């Protein structure tokens, strides 16, 4: 099974991906970790050639779950997927989750992929609002040819609906 999960910051992509991975026994890959080379001194953006090579390595495996907000360079993932899940959670829910993640990771109760800073929190909110205005319409347009395998969910707790 090949599943591509897409949605805004705070929509629940990582949580849904991890749940599905456990239920289905399929590895999950965060697209942010394909875009960024994680380094103790700070993240370094991978060159497009490196990013694309890693993405293609993942999507040509037999089974996978990929999750992320990225949509312009991941169209091959939509083509290869058996199921595409667009998490269209309400903005208020996403805003709450962004603040919750920031607080929990800032206090050290949870480890994240990047260092939580006030600057990063501000960027998360900006990306969240920008998603509604530009990314969401672009994504819905990109996904038009894939309607037969697209599920649009407003809640990331719907794993039963997906795995049946």
From TrEMBL:
Upper classification of the organism: Bacteria, Bacillati, Bacillota, Bacilli, Bacillales
InterPro entries named in the record: Cytidylate_Kinase-2 (IPR052922), P-loop_NTPase (IPR027417), Shikimate/glucono_kinase (IPR031322)
Organism of origin: Bacillus salacetis
Protein name: DNA topology modulation protein FlaR
UniProt xrefs under SUPFAM superfamilies: P-loop containing nucleoside triphosphate hydrolases (SSF52540)
Pfam families in the record: SKI (PF01202)
């Amino acid at each position: 099974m090949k599943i591509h999960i897409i949605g805004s910051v705070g929509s629940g992509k990582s949580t849904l991906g991890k749940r599905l991975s456990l239920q289905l026994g399929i590895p999950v890959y965060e697209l942010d970790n394909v875009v960024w080379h994680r380094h103790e001194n700070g993240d370094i953006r991978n060159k497009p050639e490196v990013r694309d090579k890693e993405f293609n390595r993942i999507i040509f495996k037999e089974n996978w779950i990929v999750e992320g907000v990225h949509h312009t360079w991941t169209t091959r993932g939509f083509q290869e997927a058996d199921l595409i899940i667009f998490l269209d959670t309400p903005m208020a829910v996403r805003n709450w989750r962004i603040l919750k993640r920031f607080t929990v990771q800032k206090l050290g109760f949870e480890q994240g992929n990047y260092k939580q800073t006030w600057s990063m929190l501000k960027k998360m909110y900006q990306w969240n609002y920008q998603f509604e205005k530009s990314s969401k319409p672009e994504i819905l347009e990109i996904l038009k040819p894939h309607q037969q395998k697209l599920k649009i969910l407003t809640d990331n707790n719907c794993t039963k609906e997906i795995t049946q």
